[in-house]
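Researcher: I'd like a structural prediction for the single chain below. Treat it as a standalone chain; there are no partners to consider.
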Amino acid sequence: MPVTDRPATYREVFAEPVFRALFVARGVSISAISLQIFALSVLVYATTGSPLLSALAFGAGFLPQFAGGLLLGSLTDRLPSRPLITGGYLLEAALAATLGLADLPVLVNLLLVGAVAVFTPVFAGAAARVVAERLTGDAYVLGRSLTSMSSSAAQLLGLAAGGVAVAAIGARHALLLAAAAHLLTAVIVRFTLPDERPSTPHDGGAVRDSWTGAIGLLSDRGLRGLFLAQWLPTAFAVGAEALLVSYGARRGFPPGSGALLMAASPVGMLLGNLVVGRLLRPSVRERLAAPLVVLLGAPLLALPAALPLPAVVTVLAVAGAGFAYSLGLQREFLEAAPPARRGQVFALLSTGMMALQGVGPLAFGALAEWTSPSAAIATAGAATCLVAPIIHLARR
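Model: Treating it as a single chain, here is the predicted structure.
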């Protein structure tokens, strides 16, 4: 086997202390976000009874990231990473605490979520840049796989905690648990990440530099194709996931089954990343990128059928395994990123992904109002399958 096609090992990845610190912090943060999103979705649906508003509560933190990534993305390469990432987690903690403590109208809560989300691409891009600078070759790809796996496990933990907490203490107190978890991530980053300064100077104002850099990156045809290949399938899949609470309610599933349905996809994602990331050679991963996108969308076509709850959970788990498609794109994506703009590349990746994930719940939530949640979920699955040719072209 050529050295360049040899899979990295978990030992090699975890030998890097900075990756270990960010790995733990991200896991705790994802759990908190999952708990927060579920609690807020339940709170909004219980208040309004609207699938659209419930879906908007699920996706309110996604779309505003578009503005943050375009206008503030260069800060990831201009500012020290440790205070930037720590400040982001503190901001998330303040948001969750406000949602839990203040009895605000639904619209105000959604606006607060959107306002904080503007800054998410900045500290997320900074964390991704730090990891990319510390891990090289297939160790970076395996590090991304581990990050996805930990995100899946953290989502499961957050959803499980959310289901238990909402049932036991109510949605508002569950939001306070999310705030405490966000605060813990800020402490982890502050006391474990080294204090490093950016190595590449940037001239001019941050907004102008961010806009110029984003236009330049999106003008690169190859990089643009790799962006779209990672943005679109996730956007459609999240649009379907945002409807699972209302889908379970319309199907007459037992109370609390919404958390079970939302947990199924992370289980599949965890298993898919484990198999694709650790057991397959890099060249095989890259060839499977397009077929795995089809796996992500095709199972959702079965949900309009009157399947029992265990079968629906199985379908969602199988579809979740398709998220491993992104591992086949990571090597080329990292190689295509200009070193001087690497942080902004990751911020822009996060920006487009989160923005389109905000559009997904909005579009498919509106479709669910007009038709039904099951029909809208199946439509999202069909749209995901249609992205496979884009993946193929991006790989070429």
